[in-house]
């Protein structure tokens, strides 16, 4: 199994999910560009670069894989699965695509230029995710804040890449492997994650849609065992 996290996440933040997955499969969680020990995004960074990185990783494993992607990682996983024969099944938890978080791009770029990653974490939680200021204030006091701050450096460029990229939605019907789409119950029909999810669900009528009860976009952090069960069930369902 190969897991592709989204923004402000890495292999360590997904470790509780991996530990709770009840399958014999070895699990690899990708530390994408911009996350140690991987290198920086690079001057020509784009979604296509991420897709190529993932394809190279899968090819290097020399075996078939169950592919899991969350948020931006879901978009990367879907695009890679279109052209990667080694994918056995695909699980995408609230993938995102353009237009997404466009109002946050300018202030995020300014925060990045100022090396103000506290501001970056605040902006992504308020302008992009739509969380209340009280929630963000509580988050700032929690042990999660320094972790998020450390992962915030590539965020502005990643968000720009998402908005510069046109996903191949019209080709998703051609995916001939089992696909499971995971949706947090709290995001159903709600911007930004629920509305982004709807576009992928429309493009993948063959997909099995599973709702994560009581969850939003952050089940990997807030309900890792529940998310692990959904991933386990999806792989078992895929056969």
UniProtKB/TrEMBL annotation:
Source domain of life: Bacteria
Keyword list, A-Z: Hydrolase
Domain AB hydrolase-1 residues, every copy: 2-230
One annotated GO molecular function: hydrolase activity
A matching Pfam family: Abhydrolase_6
Name by which UniProt lists this protein: Alpha/beta hydrolase
């Amino acid at each position: 199994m190969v897991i592709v996290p989204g923004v402000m996440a890495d292999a360590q933040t997904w470790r509780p999910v991996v530990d709770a997955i009840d399958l014999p499969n070895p699990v690899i969680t990708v530390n994408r560009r911009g996350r140690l020990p991987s290198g920086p995004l690079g001057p020509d960074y784009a979604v296509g670069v991420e897709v190529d990185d993932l394809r190279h990783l899968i090819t290097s494993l020399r075996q078939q894989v169950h592919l899991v992607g969350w948020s931006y990682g879901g978009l990367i996983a879907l695009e890679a699965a279109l052209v990667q024969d080694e994918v056995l099944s695909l699980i995408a938890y609230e993938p995102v695509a353009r237009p997404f978080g466009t109002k946050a791009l300018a202030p995020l770029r300014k925060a990045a230029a100022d090396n103000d990653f506290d501001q970056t974490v605040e902006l992504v939680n308020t302008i992009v995710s739509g969380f209340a200021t009280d929630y963000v204030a509580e988050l700032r006091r929690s042990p999660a804040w320094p972790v998020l701050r450390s992962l915030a450096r590539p965020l502005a460029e990643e968000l720009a890449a998402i908005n510069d990229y046109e996903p191949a939605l019209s080709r998703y019907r051609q995916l001939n492997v089992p696909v499971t789409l995971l949706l947090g119950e709290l995001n159903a029909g709600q911007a930004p994650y629920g509305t982004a999810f709807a576009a992928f669900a429309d493009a993948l009528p063959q997909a099995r849609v599973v709702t994560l009860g009581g969850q939003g976009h952050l089940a990997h952090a807030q309900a890792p065992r529940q998310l692990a069960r959904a991933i386990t069930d999806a792989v078992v369902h895929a056969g």
